[in-house]
Amino acid sequence: MTESQKTTPDITIPADLLPSDGRFGSGPTKVLPEALNALAARATDFMGTSHRKMPVKLVVAEMRNGIAELLRAPDGYEIVCGNGGSTGFWDAAVFGLIDEKSHHLSFGEFGGKFAKAVAMSPDLQAPSVTESAMGTRPDLEPVDGVDAYAFTHNETSTGVMMDPVRVGGVDDLMLVDATSAAGGLMFDANATDVYYFAPQKALASDGGLWIAMMSPAAIERVERIANSGRYIPPSLNLWSAVENSRQDQTYNTPALATIFLTAQTVNWFNDNGGLSWSAGRSATSAEILYGWADASDAASPFVQVESERSKVVATIDFDEAIDADTLVEVLRKNGILDVGGYRKLGRNQLRIGMFPAIDPADTEALTACLDYCIQAMS
Ligand SMILES: *Cc1c(COP(=O)(O)O)cnc(C)c1O
To answer: Which domains does the chain carry?
Structure first.
């Protein structure tokens, strides 16, 4: 059957089984309605005002301080931000963070993309890359002649997570892509030099911004390279980002709503107990969902090694009897959104966000909806 010939079966999930909020996407993710209401309340004194003046700079400060608290920033680490999302940060890192050569772990779409961006640079040596099959991850091992190590804390495409650890020499930088992890997974901040992310995933905000928690060693590197004479496009200059962030600004105009919503979520996490609380919500959802998949005849977790199974993005394989794409459409018709598998993985799979903003009770409700649909489709 071709795509257009496939018809979505007419299945209506009983209202009492439905989650209170149907957003289970892996990015952008569920934004807190309370945060959006708070933004609306600032419709005239925040939105549409200068990013170089106090009302906005105060929110940027609130966001930066809140993130430092949430991520338990070690002494001397700074919260730096700029425009362009995590993809923009990769380009900035190519120009201003890698001295000569980097080593990358590639175990999904995102780790692979950063390595490709590095490979195109005329200033850098070809990167060293260790790959592993989708749904697994390679070990991080020291590599000769490398000055930066790069890997994802959570590979959003495959649902594999990896604890940041330090390898290599004292001058080597650990660059951790935490785009879908920051706020949703516990980690040792001291094992990272640059823990970077965009806030439209675990931080329940909107896109366009990158945020990086940088160690003193990383900041020193950034300043040295910026003054080395290497060509760096101004909008990708990390030293400008550091200098602007210290004044609670960005080099050019940011999306004010994104900053506001990020500050709202981060405050909510911190007010409730910080990272252990927010990551705990994801861990609870993960227990519910993987527990359901393990017990289900029709479904099973894609990631085989239990300790590598992401607590923020679950990839669930389905038995041939259930067409996952059809299931995704049935769910969508019932208001449960964005649970399709990662396209390039090409599996009969659902990918489900379990970010802290998602109520574990809704994850529980989702499993009941899945059972209902599986029953109806079988
Ligand atoms: C989504 C994602 C990115 C890309 O983020 P953008 O803000 O869209 O550039 C990078 N890395 C990971 C791990 C992601 O999940």
So the answer is: 3-31+274-377 (3.90.1150.10), 35-271 (3.40.640.10)
